Amino acid sequence: MKRNKLALSLAGLLFAPACGIAFAQSAPAPAPQDQQTAQQTGPAASNAKQLQTITVTGSALPRVDTETPSPVTVITAQQIARSGFTTISDVVRSVSADNSGSIPNAFSNGFAAGASGVALRGLTVNSTLVLIDGHRVTSYPVSDDGERSFVDLNTIPLASVERIEVLKDGASSIYGADAIAGVVNIILKPGFKGVEATGDVGTSQHGGGFTRKATLLAGGGDLDTDHYNGYFSVQYQKDNDIMARQRGFPINTSDLSSIGGSGLPGAPGRGGGPNGAIQNPTTGLWQPLQPCTTGPLVTVAGAGSWCSFDPTKLEGQVQPAMEQGGIYSRITIKLNDTTKAYLSASFNQSRLWAPTPVGNAIQTSTPINTNNIMLPANNPSNPFGAPAAISYNFGDIPSGFNYNNHAARLVGDVSGTVADWNYDVTGVINHAWLNTTQYGFLTYSGLINAINNGTYNFVNPSANSSLVRQSIAPGYAKTSTSDLDVLDLTANRELWDLAGGPMGLALGAQVRHEAQNDPTLNPTTINPLTGQPTLEFQGLGNAHTIGRRNVEGMYAEFDMPLLESLELDASGRFDHYSDVGNNFSPKLGFKWKPLDWVAVRGTYSKGFRAPSFAENGSSAAQGFVTYQTPTSFQANHSAAYNLPYALAEFTQANPKIKPEKATNFTFGLVVQPTSWLSASVDYYNIKKSNLIVQANTNAALAAYYAGTPQAPGVSVIPDVPDVAPFQNNQPRPAELIGEYINANSLKTTGVDLDLQAHFDFSNNIHYISELTGTQIFEWKVQFPDGTVQTYVGTQGPYNLSSGAGTPRTRASWANTIEYGPVTVTGTLYFTSSYADIGEDVGVGPGMCITTSPNGNNFPLACRTGPTYDFDLTASYAINDHISVTGSIMNVFDRAPPFDPANYSGTGLNYNPTWSQANAIGRFYNLGVKVRF
Fold it and tell me: Which residue stretches belong to region Disordered (predicted)?
């Protein structure tokens, strides 16, 4: 027992009845019925009181000492309630280790809009493994950026959660692929007796975002007396949208001219004149097609007049409308004194409505550049009797996406003891399907037909019938699916006694089937002008993913207490993939206690990430980037041909791609010098090789202009020729076609800090304070030619992080006071500032991603400030059955720091990945809980 003194003291501190949203380093003991994570075993049987053993995430062995060699953060259901958060997404993404590549619900400009994902250590969402009760979960049916697979946190029910364990260390030696940055293990309640119901409502002080939530948890039966326990939970939540116009400057506008940025869209034919303008073919001057309704008339000498238009103010969204709901049920049966079985089933649904700002203009550049579309002389909307150019937005045709994601899960488990072996056999069936409905995006052929036939009224859009609108923008719907079926077998036992205690052995095997079918987002049609294939809908990229595979794996773990003060842990896993072959991942860990109140710990491991189906399946993705041809090219072409345009980037899967590999190293110190203070600090070092990336498009473009052979894996498709007399000169590039390759490597290092103190005062006042934080020392990528790009403290990797960047520091500080029936928790969240540069998009030190119209850095300091958010929650227990709760989120109504370069939202000039609570503003919640 002496060897467990420190860990048990820390566990006892953690189990104190009050903590804030405090993220501790020790795992709490589960309820006795939790056979998924706990068993009562033999070593303590000789003691007067048998100790509970638990299985902590990252290890397959049950243990009394909850401090493992790896750092584990635990968030209990009580802590979640005191945080004021109402979704799994908000809870998990508030962990300080979540960084670059994290996906918020407010993300609406990507292929995986409508979902939320966690990215520990900033290694994007595809390197963090998400489990439920220690078992894998099917991925979101659509890949982030058409490439990265991840688990949607929105489809996991919060009402059934017992606790969440976050392993901040590599764990491929136990769990296999994807556990490079760490593991998020969401542990559901093993059993429940009674009835518990909650109801909550909330609203924003500044308007919009009204939310309502209700949960019901009911169960009965006692395993010891009735030999069964069964329960079910139901949860529903709906959040209204928040419009940009309901917030202040600069969130509510696209016009940043007052602070030195760009103004509203400019001259027609150059992306402006959105309310409708036509060019006089005789004078060359522009004039409105209709009276201005979207803003005042703008007149520019030598150019003409048109109606101003602010798309953000009219249709921009800070928060999309969202609806989540689900049901979870579980029945556990005690078959005999040593054997139990349970069956659980769940269904969860998450819906999100994401309209796009009005701006579905004829003058789009993707996939076809349609600037200066001409109205024929006989078109009823043309008053000039000669062909005339128009600039127009279809304000009468709303556009956007509706996402409806479903996740069904069935789990069967049998566990028990045979011949001194504790075994567990689990079968899991997961199926997810996502219904995506796109509406309001124009088809090029429909647009040309409407113009030539005169069927669409540009002067009076209200006169257009629904059939006319549908002929231009017919809409499109698809259903994407994802499947994961798993059979897990585990067993563990004690072997023989060592100097520090019994040696433990765990063995495991797994068989699973994975599949994804994501149909095309933008079907292919024939360009009526060129006769060549092109994407059907204007303003949309494209992606599709099809793949399936089988995986078999087996692993072993040894826990060796060599001395009372020294513990070693060794584990390793072998996996066979039907598509990428074999992999072996080992791990070694140690924990040394030179003193009862000091523990030193560390790990060394190898990990891997298998390619996603988007990277090696029957898959491809096409996006567009704004591109400007080189100066030397422009000298031989017309002015219109030299304007910035949308360059297509088409990336196809590579069946020969290899898995990414990683090496992880951690080293930490845990101390508890007094009964009221504990602390831990852990250093991490991750090196990743064989990074799966797109081929080098810059090299391909350079070769194209030079007329030399193309770079390996990339080809350049030329555009249609320029107009006379330049028609015989080299065409500009229209599309880059490449495939995924293993090229780069990366390294990231940093440190996690956890401090916890608790005090008991007179009058039965209990106080707990806890500070947690993550500091990143380096985050850099090295290319095959030796070039190194550094991202920490900047807005890079710009493309992979949705413009969110890599903040150097994230932290939270929670303080809780308990006084009789009253509990109050205040939590401060902090994210550090970052430079508005991104080396991965060719922007280095001294150069901002965004610039002002005169070419200066914008903002001038080229930096986005830090984010602060303070939340206050309280509860009052009226009696043993009824309590009321309330919270004020963003108490000080702090606005988000200005960030014009971020693109994960809808151009709202802030970063929703880190500052969404600030953009929402002060928010009030009130609820009631009833339990019998």
Answer: 30-49, 262-283
DSSP 366-393: SSS--TTEEEPTT-TT--SSS-EEEE-B
What pLDDT digit, counting tens, does each position of 700-716 carry? 888 899 988 877 678 89
Task: At 726, list the tokens.
Answer: 């330049």
Match 């109606």 to its residue by tokens.
307
**Is 680 in contact with 670 (CB distance < 8 Å)?**
yes
pLDDT tens profile 421-444 = 999 999 999 999 999 999 999 998
Residue 638: predicted pLDDT: 86
d(CA 118, CA 110): 16
Residue with tokens 């567990």: 424
Cα–Cα distance for residue pair 920/301, rounded to 1 Å? 41
The terminus-to-terminus CA distance of the chain in angstroms comes to 39
pLDDT at residue 121, as a whole number: 94
**Of 267, 257, 159, 145, nearest to 215 (Cα)?**
159
**Bridge partner residues of 759 (DSSP):** 767
Q: What angle do CA 838, 843, 844 make, to 5 degrees?
A: 90
Element (H, E) at 615: helix 613-616
Q: What is the torsion angle, in degrees rounded to the nearest 10, for the CA atoms of residue 207, residue 261, residue 804 and residue 115?
A: 50
pTM above 0.70, yes or no: yes
Strand partners, 788: 782
Instruction: Assess contact for 230 and 221: CB atoms under 8 A.
Output: yes
Give one DSSP letter per residue of 355-368, joined into a string: EPPS--BS---SSS
Q: How far is CA 550 from CA 484, 580, 913, in A?
A: 10, 10, 35
Angle at 199 between CA 196 and CA 202, to 5 degrees: 150
- Residue 789 CA to its chain's centroid (Å): 23
Q: Tell me the C-alpha distance between 148 and 406, whole Å.
A: 19
- Burial annotation 845-863 (CB, 10 A radius, 16+ → b, else e): eeebbbbbeeeebbbeebb
For the chain, domains (ranges, CATH) are 2-244+320-355+403-438+479-619+656-698+740-931 (2.40.170.20)
* Paired sense of beta strands 211-220 and 228-239, if any: antiparallel
Distances (CA, A) of 315 to 53, 296, 441, 533: 55, 17, 16, 33
Handedness of CA 126, 131, 134, 135 (dihedral sign): negative
The pair of structure tokens assigned to 826 is 């205040």
Residue 909 and residue 251 in contact, taking contact as beta carbons nearer than 8 Å: yes
By residue count, the chain amounts to: 932
Listed in sequence order, the residues at least 6 apart from 369 whose beta carbon sits closer than 8 Å to its beta carbon are: 645, 646
Query: Contact at 8 Å (CB) between 243 and 251?
Result: no
What is the pLDDT of the chain when averaged over all its residues? 88
Q: Which token pair is 866?
A: 């830090």
Distance CA 799, CA 145 (A): 9
Angle at 104 between CA 896 and CA 353, to 5 degrees: 105
Q: Is 711 helix (H, G, I), strand (E, B) or coil?
A: coil
* Tokens coding 931: 């339990």
